[in-house]
Amino acid sequence: MKYPDMATWIEAVILAEEAEKFDDQSIVPLVSELPYGAVVAIADLAGCFKMVHATDASAVGKNEILIGQQSVLERAVGDWSAGRFAWQLENIKALEPILWKGGQGLRDVLPELKDLVLAQVGAQSDE
Known about the structure:
Largest sheet: 3 strands, mixed
Radius of gyration: 17 Å
Structural class: alpha+beta
Helix content: 25-40%
Order of helices and strands: HEEHEH
Strand order of the largest sheet: 2-1-3
Distance between the termini: 42 Å
Oligomer: single chain
Number of strands: 3
Number of helices: 3
Strand content: 25-35%
């Protein structure tokens, strides 16, 4: 699978800004400022939906999502091919970047990473 390159990300952010997809433009980071190889947020996984093409929205099942109903930004920065899956995230909490080598797929969180994340989350709740 080919992931979007930097130019695609920049174009998607510009599209979002021009289309006023965000109420507060200050929350849109410059792509060049985004960290690589870092944990930048935590969230609860609230749902998982199979991406489908359909001409009739009523044909979409409970755990499916209609590709054509996604925003221009979503389609520009993700792989919205039929048969793939989209995660619905809730309770997203931004973190100061924690340098950490990532990888594809789900895995257990190592204790040392958990400690670093919890230290930040605890500090956020104290503010």
